[in-house]
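Lab meeting tomorrow. Look over both lines:
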Amino acid sequence: QVQLVESGGGLVQTGGSLKLSCAASGRAFGSYAMGWFRQAPGKEREWVGAVSGTGYNTYYADSVQGRFAISRDNAKNTVVLQMNSLKPEDTAVYYCAASNSYIASVATDYAYWGHGTQVTVSS
């Protein structure tokens, strides 16, 4: 069992940056691939990116490639989503999630979810 809590959301202007953190409790954090998803009002949940259990491998959706970066610190049971060059279309509730798969981009591959944190990018 893994409990996840996101933090760091807020309001930022276009072009700005935000850093989201996800704190995990539970055992064997390093055995889980960690992903970030987002959901805007009226839209389906969208995969943003993921990091492998070791942290050596990361993957991103095309929409955020080059602007967002995911990292993790297994000693501190945390994963970070650094978001730069933010755009209004990045506005959404952002969720972190844990997967038993090596790395995954599909929500159904993730067994544990946080409650989300709101990110709003003003134009």
Notes: The mean pLDDT is 96. The chain has no helices and eleven strands. The first strand starts at residue 2 and ends at 7.
